[in-house]
Amino acid sequence: MTLSRGSHYLAIPGPSVMPDEVLRAMHRPAPNIYTGELHDIVDTIIPDLKRVAGTQHDVAIYICNGHGAWEAALTNVFRRGDKVLALATGTFTHGWADKAEQLGIAPVRLDFGRRDAIDLARVEAVLTEDAGHEIKALLCVQVDTASSVKNDIKGVRAVLDRVGHPALLMVDCIACLGVDEFHMDDWGVDVMVTGSQKGLMTPPGLGFVYFSPKADAARDRADLVTGYWDWRPRVNAEAFYQYFCGTAPTHHLYGLRVALDLMLDEGMEKIWERHAALAKAVWAAFDAWGAGGPLELNIADPAMRSNAVTAVRAGRENGTRLRDWVSAHAGVTLGIGLGMGTDEDPASDGFFRVGHMGHVNAQMVMGALGAIDIGLKAVKIPHGPGALEAASTVLSRA
Ligand SMILES: *Cc1c(COP(=O)(O)O)cnc(C)c1O
Asked: Does residue 344 have a pLDDT over 90?
């Protein structure tokens, strides 16, 4: 006997659930890439991509995943040997800094650990020290998908302004664009990278690099940029093929068009509110379970938690045991504890994550929490009572 037949729910932090409308939009024969509907779609996608990011600046679209967007952003603004300050929270800023290092850029890492957000005072101290403005840019994530921490990007901009430091502010919003509140222009972000497969509810395969005029000016002195990654022809395309430096990602564009329609129909403010309510329900459940056992939210302060993903410390091996059971028997796949292992527990098997980004509603979140509740009992992980009650109370008040 199995309880896992029926619709399987992939509750990992990306790729996220794709709406049926997005899937249907992609189910079509190959379109003409030389003229017609596809060209019209790109003309409308670009302004809508800017709208969801709160920007009037440019956005270049690449056929790549988030790692490609990282590299695109780096190559367009840096010279070999440039010094950048990586504000590392959790795992992903390190990944971006590693990419920089491989390109011959010199990242200096300020590490804030696996359970904390960027400490603005430490950033201010380092920038103040850098009187000669050797640091060309700050690299950071708005949300670290491994630790589930959310950083105060507006606060980082305020520090740069207070110190009067000209470094570019470069932000990875791959996990959280269209989930957590973000305003590129109001927050003074110079470069923002994101991808299609998380808040944007489209398959992995599109990377987006947004950049300000100041970042574009840095492009003039950059010596790392190559023809394929160059963002200039992509935003000033004189011929359609230049948008993508070759064949357009046809079906992704059809899917993305519909995903953007869904988002703009709902409205950005409402999207952020929905995710906030769903995330609060998840946290309430974990607080209740944690009161009687080892489960603990990785980020203690709710103000530092993302609404896109929740990382959980479950106690040695418990993360993997629970994930395996829930996937095999209850029809829900939970996220692995990515990069969260410690020296004593390198395999990360004492951690798991719940993705709640994009096309997610109350019944999906309650279903995932219900499956976790069953799993905790089935694999005998001690836990407190009342988690589902706590979550449903949160949602009933939203
Ligand atoms: C998912 C993610 C990435 C990596 O994206 P890929 O598409 O897997 O290359 C980078 N940064 C953050 C914050 C992410 O959530």
From this structure: no
